[in-house]
Design brief:
The chain is α/β, with parallel strands linked by helices and 420 residues long. Helices cover 38% and strands 20% of the residues. It is built from 16 helices and 15 strands. Helix 7 packs parallel to helix 10 and helix 10 packs across helix 15. InterPro entries: Gfo/Idh/MocA-like_OxRdtase_C (IPR004104), Gfo/Idh/MocA-like_OxRdtase_N (IPR000683), Gfo/Idh/MocA_Oxidoreductases (IPR051450), NAD(P)-bd_dom_sf (IPR036291).
Length: 420
Amino acid sequence: MIKAALLGAGRRGMYAYASYALKRPDEIQFIAVAEPDEERRALFARLHSIPTEMQFTSWEEMLQQPQLCEVLLICTQDRQHFEPAMKALEQGYHILLEKPMSPEPLETIRLAEEAEKKQQILSVCHVSRYDTYYSALKEVLDKGVIGKVMSVQWTENVGFWHQAHSFVRGNWRNSDETSSMILQKSCHDMDMLQWFIGGKCLEVSSYGKLSYFRPENAPAGSTERCTDGCAVEHECPYSAIKHYHNEKTNSFPMVVSPIPTLEARMKAIQEGPYGRCVFHCDNNVVDHQVVNMYFDNEVTVSFTMSAFTAENTRTFKFMGTAGEIRGHHENNEIEINYFSGRKEIIRPERFEGGHGGADYLTMRDFIRQVQSKELDGKTSASVSARGHIMAFAAEHSRLTGRNVNLDSYIEELQNNQVLA
């Protein structure tokens, strides 16, 4: 049985990944946790029967100890990924690292290089690759049923409520504290696109803005908080009272208040970040962005990320020389339209759990990888780093207004580091 430790007992660390140990205690056991929030730390320790001496208040405190176990899960905030991961590789841990690897492009490359140098497993949580829906899509594409893929349209429909929760009020609202929207939300998309297309992305161009969730767009009568007597709160689709002060049991109210009572939730939105008006937050990440990509196998891709959607899902169209494939992730349908006139619908098997069971399957695959000591996994750092660089280059293009050649971009980053 594998012994493991967790850095960061937030929603992803505690429920998406570590909960696997509660279902499969014969495969993995958590023997230590590092988490600054006392309540979350105590809850995780209680769930996994972790003694007091193995509960730490920070990743620094844990990694000051001699190596505690074989495996480390790093699920801290974005800007607390690189340092603990490098330290853990130095100590000899095999690592499952929450995405993004780092908000800095050179740190992403260094992590991949260090894992290869140390010959240790560093797997990145690109859970979408484990989603049975996308695995089925990959199988269809690899069979070549629509001939050679020439063009792809891919849309990430963020969902108006999800944008407000995570990227206006929540943890990933400000790139100065975390990372850019294209990296944090869409590095999954960059990773999957290179996986599906099977080529190397050569160039990107991108446009995008924070256009709507700004103070000047606040409606007349609005207040700093939804609970401050806002005159338009009842009609506002972003009302914190509507979204959080209700009997729903999904994960978003749990983030607002770990205590599930309505009284606790009301107190949280009266005092905490999730009760703020969406037009009066300290957010700076974009609310819509497009990225165009060109691959070395001559495939062109148009990617759109938008907050202004009713659904929270991904939709796409792959256009090939013998047909096209359309998809809608939430509907669990892959539609193949052959140019001969035949149509085929595939509905992949679904697993229980987060991200259509992909969180569970990510942990299962990582455990098997550790057991077999296989360094080149499905989402290894070397594979993930290239997708990250696509996102970094897209953001660079958005900010500069220029097309970006990825190889030149990497070379420029490395040269600037030497000069610095």
